Amino acid sequence: MPENFKVVRTGVRKKLWGIFPREVDYHLDIGTGKKNIAYNLIGRIRAKHRLCCEANEEKVSLMARYKPVFCGDALTLGAFVKEKLFDLVTALDVIEHLEKRDGFKLLELIDSLCCGAAVVFTPFGELFMGNKGVKWEEHLSGWWPEDFEKYGYDCTVLKDFHNIKGKFYDALLAVKNFGGKDG
Predict the structure, then answer these.
(1) Distance (Å, whole) CA 77 – CA 128
(2) What is the mean pLDDT of each run of 10 residues along the chain (183 residues)?
(3) Domain positions in the chain
(4) How many helical (H) and strand (E) elements, i.e. helices and strands, does the chain have?
(5) C-alpha–C-alpha distance, residues 95 and 37, integer Å
(6) 3.40.50.300, 3.30.1490.20, 3.40.50.150, 3.30.450.20: which CATH number matches 6-177?
């Protein structure tokens, strides 16, 4: 595996806080459902207009803080949303819940909808877990830096980010800058 990505061992939370803009006009958050770090990160971004997309209907009821909510599969969003509308697109702890081919479709969708910056966060490599057989909960794919780099993302591995029952696993942060609405 190529080692052309950054590895962060300390100051992980500070690194995460630092990549998000404080204010944007249009923000699309894919997979908004109430989660640990993602929920807190998104709450720190002031967006004039925010669209949250959540496929898990049960989680939508937990999202009173965020309106409007598109309840459905993110891969269908392109039919409803104008291309290059969003200054920021976030997909935190989402892509691993898709089959690999659909994960690549998600990256292509983000390319079509984003004109500013995109941030994708996922476990590093293969961390198959979740509620097996429960749609949108089970991890169906593993992701490596080269999966994102071929789409123009800069990748950072966050060492020992996830603590699952006392065992630590790395996370992968992929960020792409589209150059803004004016190019």
Answers:
(1) 26
(2) 56 67 89 63 81 79 69 89 94 92 97 95 82 69 96 92 84 89 54
(3) 6-177
(4) 5, 8
(5) 16
(6) 3.40.50.150
Tokens in use for 178? 């589209």
Strand order in the sheet with 114-123: 6-8, 154-164, 167-177, 114-123, 86-92, 23-30, 46-54, 69-71
Supply the DSSP string of 108-134, one letter for each residue.
Answer: HHHHHHEEEEEEEEEEBB----SSTT-
Which element (helix H / strand E) includes 37?
A: helix 36-43
Residues in the chain, total: 183
> Which strand (E) or helix (H) includes residue 48?
strand 46-54
